[in-house]
Amino acid sequence: MTLQVTDVFASYGPFKVLKSVSIEVKPEQCISVIGQNGAGKSTLLRAILGLLGLESGQVTFEGKDITNLSPWERAKIGLILVPEGRHIFGPLTVYENLSIGCVKYQRKKRLKKRLDFVYELFPFLQQRENQTSATLSGGEQQMLAIARALMAQPKLMLLDEPSLGLSPVMIEALSKTLEEVKRTSSLLLVEQNVRLALNLAEKMYMLHGGQVVFQGTDKEFESEPKFLELYFG
Ligand SMILES: Nc1ncnc2c1ncn2[C@@H]1O[C@H](COP(=O)(O)OP(=O)(O)OP(=O)(O)O)[C@@H](O)[C@H]1O
Ligand SMILES: [Mg+2]
């Protein structure tokens, strides 16, 4: 198993958010977590990445208990986030943003190798290498955020609503990109765009009020009107 989250409870002060959440990601698998605003999706990612302490429960990665590791230690072993809202460094160039993503490789040779890999997947980023990142379009910035995460050679890439604010054409491009990324990394995709999630993920989890109310395949999800109703209101 790549990632196993078991019976996790997490709160912001007195405000309880995650209530007995268990999910798992198998090697080379893409799972998707969907749910309405405030369901606890980003909180779940924070808990997995060690950005929010657990009240109880356990997180294991490749069979190792990582519940008490720091976010940095988790990044080093391959858990890499593509955050909601991209959070690229606007004043820096495309090249500089990508270099920052290369958490493990201070050595120039390794950096070059990762850059070659990323530029092959995103040729436009090589053409824009010296462009200030803030001047890229929203969709291009999203691709840069994914490329920056790939620089760290993730074993599990966690994406928080990557389709937010993108046009249908850009969402299509994003979907193709993530299909490519799936060849090299497991994916945990948080999405509001259920269509994108259904297309990419082999397994879906639905969070509602901080609890997993559904888990199953895309087909099982689509054949359950009750969940569609819960999701779409
Ligand atoms: N730092 C915080 N302090 C207190 N409450 C918080 C904090 N961050 C999130 N919350 C609350 O926790 C709940 C879950 O938030 P979370 O961000 O995980 O939702 P989400 O499913 O990611 O929603 P969205 O789709 O809008 O991004 C919400 O009710 C939110 O108000
Ligand atoms: Mg969120």
From TrEMBL:
SUPFAM superfamilies: P-loop containing nucleoside triphosphate hydrolases. GO terms for molecular function: ATP binding; ATP hydrolysis activity; branched-chain amino acid transmembrane transporter activity. Coiled coil: none annotated. Keywords: Amino-acid transport, ATP-binding, Nucleotide-binding, Transport. Transmembrane segments: none annotated. Residues 3-230 form the ABC transporter domain. One of its GO terms (biological process) is L-amino acid transport. Belongs to the ABC transporter superfamily. This is ABC transporter domain-containing protein. It comes from marine sediment metagenome.
